[in-house]
Write a structure and sequence with these properties.
It is globular, with a radius of gyration of 22 Å. About 80% of the residues lie in helices and about 0% in strands. The longest helix has about 35 residues. It has ten helices and no strands.
Length: about 250
């Protein structure tokens, strides 16, 4: 566990360092009025406290946490159901038909039905993230070797025990892998939804600074949002190492 944390800490330092180097080169190439010096942006991070950034970040984390939690719960239930031979005949065509629908285009509909508050934003993120989870859970459960169940049946395991110690761990493995991939999309959709009907959230803060032509604080807000997504990404990695030791 200690080695894992050290490894994650190294990536935590190396990742932002590489981004900073690329950013600094871009600063010299692009118009400097639009692309501020990264060191100037970093020095402006403490100034965000005067602009209520803690409250903005708290609102964003609240929305993304609820959306990801809902996505995992719904994805697990529907994915397990879709893995069943009988239910798959109904659910799989429905999933395949609705998956290609551009969910971002549904934002006006969702806002009309659920209003402009947090509910519509949470639903939008959930709609984006839940489909990949459903498909991966379904495929993960279907890929479980039949010999695994046969061995447990011979040992006298009940259906509940087989579900608890075989099916569920395989499904959780698929959820965490997909969640890691979907996290970037979730943060992007969060930013998009916070541009409408709210005065709190990192998306609102970044756009507000952009409209005020305060590019330094705008980029500082982007840094905060990016680092938040990076920390969540590392957290999922650590969670996977702890919960899925059986894979190793």
């Amino acid at each position: 566990m200690g080695y894992l944390l050290i490894s994650k800490l190294k990536s935590f330092i190396l990742g932002p360092a590489l981004v900073g180097i690329i950013w600094y080169f871009a600063y010299w190439i692009i118009d400097r009025n639009v692309m501020p010096n990264p060191f100037l942006v970093l020095s402006a991070l403490p100034d965000l406290l005067e602009h209520n950034v803690i409250s903005h970040l708290a609102h964003s984390l609240y929305r993304i946490f609820l959306a990801l939690s809902l996505s995992m719960i719904i994805g697990l239930i529907v994915g397990l159901a879709a893995a069943d031979k009988n239910l798959s005949k109904i659910l799989t065509p429905f999933i395949y038909f609705t998956y290609p629908i551009p969910r971002v285009a549904l934002l006006p509909v969702v806002m009309l039905v659920f209003g402009l508050r947090d509910v519509s934003k949470i639903i939008m993120i959930t709609l984006i993230v839940v489909y990949p989870i459903i498909i991966v859970v379904r495929d993960s459960v279907k890929d479980i070797p039949k010999e695994t169940y046969s061995s447990l049946i011979c040992l006298g395991a009940s259906k509940f025990q087989m579900f608890l110690f075989v099916t569920l761990p395989w499904a959780v493995s698929g959820i965490l892998s997909t969640l890691r991939i979907s996290l970037g999309t979730a943060v992007a959709i969060l930013f998009f939804t916070e541009a409408y009907g709210t005065r709190y959230g990192m998306g609102f803060f970044i756009l507000d600074m952009w409209q005020r032509i305060n590019y330094v604080l705008m980029f500082a807000g982007i840094v905060v949002l990016s680092m938040t997504g990076f920390i969540l990404f590392v957290f999922i990695d650590v969670l996977e190492e702890v919960l899925l030791r059986w894979k190793k």
